[in-house]
Design a protein that fits this description.
41% of the residues lie in helices and 19% in strands. It is built from twelve helices and nine strands. It folds into two domains: 206 residues, Vaccinia Virus protein VP39 (Rossmann fold, 3-Layer(aba) Sandwich), CATH 3.40.50; 64 residues, rRNA adenine dimethylase, C-terminal domain (Helicase, Ruva Protein, domain 3). The protein binds S-adenosylmethionine (SAM). The site of S-adenosylmethionine has 23 residues, from strand 1, helix 3 and strand 3.
Length: 278
């Protein structure tokens, strides 16, 4: 399958939108995936098949949705844009393995919306809500055990960054606390309709059991990264009574900055903070 097939799929998506009187809405991050090679690569990366439950956020024109169902998975897909309903009715007609829910996934309690489990989240995420959804799922939706998402390349870099790197921040800490993450592959702008200005990347995260005090660790990291340039003994004064003592008890240099502390360091700090107040 080569350039011809990709050109054909691109033309089909353009024709589909046109026939329904629609054009992609930038405000909703509508950059539709128009290359079947990439769609299939995402499905392969997710390793889903018969018996698996997949949640997708942002069905768009249903390309990835249909490919996931074709692989044998049961798919629940959320789409905020009601205008796409007739397109999706057409593309997904006759499928009983896909359930469309037209709602704003960023405002939804996904933990409540998804019964049972395990679920795999597979999505070409809308740029404006992508990071928030991934972090929210990791923190609050334990029945989602695997995540395979396409995001902006720079978002991928932030999710995957390790301590000491300029990209290391709160998203990296949340990912590091809850899962094992890897870069799957890079995606150029040309495969989308319309083309975004930036590169994209597919990231895979496998959930690990949540460590105790993960939320306390995230709250401490959030406070410190909120004042990234300050030493920890200064940036944590609002959330810890005696930051210097607690940092020392956790084995962290009080003059360090937040980018120096690995995810397990934030856990140690949360532990030391709990002991200091007990
Ligand atoms: N999955 C499709 C594909 O790969 O071509 C569409 C991907 S497009 C990047 C993102 C989709 O997410 C759009 O269809 C957009 O309308 C939808 N979307 C944006 N914000 C959303 C939200 N808060 N909840 C659910 N869907 C949303």
């Amino acid at each position: 399958m080569g350039a011809d097939r990709a050109a054909q799929v691109r033309a089909e998506i353009a024709e589909l939108l046109d026939r329904h009187g629609l054009s992609p809405r930038r405000s909703l991050g509508q950059n539709f995936l128009a290359d079947p090679n990439i769609t299939e690569r995402i499905v392969r990366t997710a390793e889903v098949g018969p018996g698996d439950q997949v949640v997708e956020i942002g069905a768009g024109t249903g390309t990835l949705t249909a490919a996931l169902a074709d692989a044998g998975a049961r798919v629940v897909s959320f789409e905020v844009d009601e205008g796409l309903r007739p397109v999706l009715d057409e593309v997904l007609a006759g499928r009983d393995d896909v359930e469309m829910r037209f709602t704003d996934a960023a405002r939804l309690d996904l933990g409540e919306a998804l019964e049972g489990g395990p679920w795999t989240l597979v999505a070409n995420l809308p740029y404006h809500v992508g990071t928030g959804i991934v972090l929210d799922v990791l923190r609050h939706v334990p029945q989602v055990t695997d995540i395979v998402v396409m995001v902006q390349r720079e978002v991928a870099d932030r999710l995957l960054a390790g301590p000491g790197s300029k990209d290391y921040g709160l998203p990296s800490v949340v990912v590091g606390l809850h899962g094992d993450a890897r870069f799957a592959f890079g995606v150029p702008p040309q495969v989308f309709l319309p083309q975004p200005k930036v590169e994209s990347a597919v990231v895979r995260i496998r959930r690990r059991p949540a460590p105790p005090r993960a939320e306390e660790a995230i709250a401490l990291a959030a406070a410190a990264f909120g004042q990234r340039r300050k030493m920890l003994r200064r940036s944590l004064t609002e959330v810890l009574e005696d930051p210097e003592a607690v940092l020392t008890a956790a084995g962290i240099d009080p003059t360090a900055r937040p980018e120096d502390v690995p995810p397990e360091g934030w856990l140690a700090l949360a532990e030391a903070a709990a002991e200091a107040t007990s």
